[in-house]
Specification:
Number of strands: 10
Strand order of the largest sheet: 6-7-8-3-9-10
Shape: globular
Structural class: alpha/beta
Helix content: 25-40%
CATH class of the largest domain: Alpha Beta
CATH topology of the largest domain: Rossmann fold
Number of domains: 2
Radius of gyration: 19 Å
CATH superfamily of the largest domain: P-loop containing nucleotide triphosphate hydrolases
Strand content: 15-25%
Distance between the termini: 53 Å
Order of helices and strands: EEEHEEHEHHHEHEHEEHHH
CATH architecture of the largest domain: 3-Layer(aba) Sandwich
């Protein structure tokens, strides 16, 4: 469902993403892991058509994102790490606008908006302006908008930021249900324990390059690490930051 081949993005002399290739199948939940600055957000922005790759190919449901971006984007839901919202709209108005943009109408449109507001426990705040929403409520209305048109490919960049434990648990249940219903779900997260428990497969990125990929069990079986966090730190070289930690307290 999601396929990228030899994806590369340059900003002048900076190589942000280098020769990235992977696929996410329908019904699969794929965790995209890496330290800050590894190229995760740049990759997701290319996959969703927000950035044009320097080279390489992107296909969403078999549709070429570069050659036919409009058709490819019809299949996509996207939750960015820092979503833009129209703060002078109410929650309901924002979802109505989103439905208009997707060309949704009829009873299904109204039912979906009502159901999503209820699912994310926003029905009591639906007629309030978004400018008064908390960080968690903003994240929830963004998730609701992304789900409104029932996307076949879902991209989420750090979606648990701002959510309380109950909201984070709901998000995990929603993502699993999306996968069960056949959507390809790609999730970028710093919460490695979430990725280990939730994702069918993970890809680990460092310095713009995909350095490891597989199921959490497969990756751990090839290493002496006890969990995905230890493996991640070892593969990305981040564990060295902690090796001399004790001397700062001597």
């Amino acid at each position: 469902m999601i396929l990228c081949e030899h994806l590369t993005k340059r900003y002048g002399d900076l190589l942000a993403v280098h020769n990235m290739s992977f696929a996410v199948a329908p019904g699969e939940l794929y965790g995209f892991l890496g330290p800050n600055g590894a190229g995760k957000t740049t990759t997701i922005k290319m996959l969703t058509g927000l950035l044009k790759p320097t080279s390489g190919a992107i296909f969403i449901g078999g549709v070429d994102m570069v050659q036919d971006a409009a058709e490819a984007k019809r299949q996509i839901g996207y939750v960015p790490d820092n979503p833009f919202l129209y703060e002078r709209l109410t929650g309901t108005e924002f979802l109505e606008l989103t439905a208009d943009l997707w060309g949704m109408g009829g009873e299904k449109r109204a039912r979906k908006i009502t159901d999503l507001l209820k699912l994310f426990e926003l029905e009591d705040k639906a007629d309030q302006l978004i400018q008064g929403y908390s960080r968690g409520m903003r994240q929830k209305i963004t998730l609701a908008a992304a789900l409104l048109h029932e996307p076949k490919a879902m991209f989420l960049d750090e979606p648990t930021v701002g959510l309380d434990p109950k909201g984070a648990r709901l998000l995990k249940e929603v993502l699993r249900e999306l996968a069960i219903r056949g959507a390809a779900v790609m999730l970028s997260t710093h919460l490695l324990e979430v990725a280990e428990r939730l994702c069918d497969r993970v890809g680990i990125v460092s310095q713009g390059t995909l350095i490891a990929e597989g199921t959490p069990a497969e990756l751990l079986s090839q290493d002496s690490s006890q969990n995905l966090e230890e493996l991640f730190l070892a593969l990305t070289g981040e564990e060295s930051e902690y090796s001399e930690l004790a001397r700062y307290f001597d």
